[in-house]
Amino acid sequence: MRPPRSFLPFLSFLSVFLLLVCAPSANSAVSNTTIDDTSSAFVFTGEWTAVSDSQPCEFCSSQPDPSQTFGGTWHDGNCRTGATDTTTGSFTFTGSAVFIYGIDQAQSQPNIVFTLGGTQTTHHYTGTERFAYNALFFSATGLEAGQTHTVNWIFNVDSDTDVVVQSALFDYAIVTSGTDDVPTSVTTPSTNPNPTLATNQKEPTTISTSTAPLRSRIFYSHNRTCVRPVVHLS
User: Fold this and answer.
1) Signal peptide: which range, if any (predicted)?
2) Cβ neighbours of residue 130 under 8 Å, at least 6 residues apart?
3) Residues 81 and 160: beta-carbon distance below 8 Å
4) How far, in Å, CA of 202 to CA of 192, rounded?
5) One digit per residue, pLDDT tens: the chain, 234 residues?
6) Spatial distance between the Cα atoms of 22 and 54, rounded to a whole number of angstroms
7) CB 191 within 8 A of CB 132
8) Is 166 helix (H, G, I), strand (E, B) or coil?
């Protein structure tokens, strides 16, 4: 039995209305963008060396495999016991989440103190691998998606090792754009004994909507330092 003709226009209107209401919004789409260390979004200050296949660093104590790095490039930063100069850096981005990756090194890496807004957290590698690639140095989620944010970091000598010149290798960052399903953790398989600080994946894979703030974890080296007694990070 056919519906009355007067009812057909209403059905057409209802179909169009439902399509408009149920269609996903382009503005709410979430995407991850990988940004290499060679980007101007990164700023490196102090004892840093930009390393690549075309510009190798023969005098650098750290010699990772370029094929295991993103784009075959990385920045090698040094921190010397007792030095008065600082080794710092920053990464500026616009997005709702950020993940900064590098190459962890056993017994030769300084503590890296990160600051974003009013929160500090320190990356301290406790593994045993000579080079642990795609290591998660820092992450922050639940940020204002439309605002520009800057992550700052500074090196602090690791007092658990007798290595005088310690180095940290920065590789790339991943920025999440959009506000739906913001990643809040990285739980991919890892060869690092501490999976919260490193991952073998280049992109976040665990998705949730939590906006809980970062917890502050700060490690201080005693009797040895490569930073001035008072350091202010914006």
Assistant:
1) 1-28
2) 105, 106
3) no
4) 15
5) 555 555 555 555 555 455 544 444 444 588 999 999 999 999 999 999 999 989 999 999 999 999 999 999 999 999 988 877 899 999 999 999 999 999 999 989 999 999 999 999 999 999 999 999 999 999 999 999 999 999 999 999 888 888 889 999 999 999 999 865 444 443 333 333 332 333 333 444 333 323 333 333 333 333 344 543 333 333
6) 51
7) yes
8) strand
Contact indicator for 156, 113 with CB cutoff of 8 Å: yes
Per the CB < 8 A criterion, the answer to whether 224 and 156 are in contact is: no
Count CA atoms within 13 Å of residue 120 on its CB side.
Answer: 15
Residue whose entry in the numeric block shows the structure tokens 């030769």:
108
Tell me how far the alpha carbon of residue 177 is from its chain's centroid.
14
Alpha-helical (H) ranges within the chain are: 8-22
Hey, what are 211's tokens?
Answer: 């906006």
Contacts of 115 (CB under 8 A, 6+ apart): 151, 152, 153, 233, 234
Name the token pair of 61. 């104590």
How far is 38 from 173, CA to CA, in rounded Å?
11
- 8 Å CB contact between 82 and 225: yes
Dihedral over Cα of 30, 73, 88, 155: its sign: positive
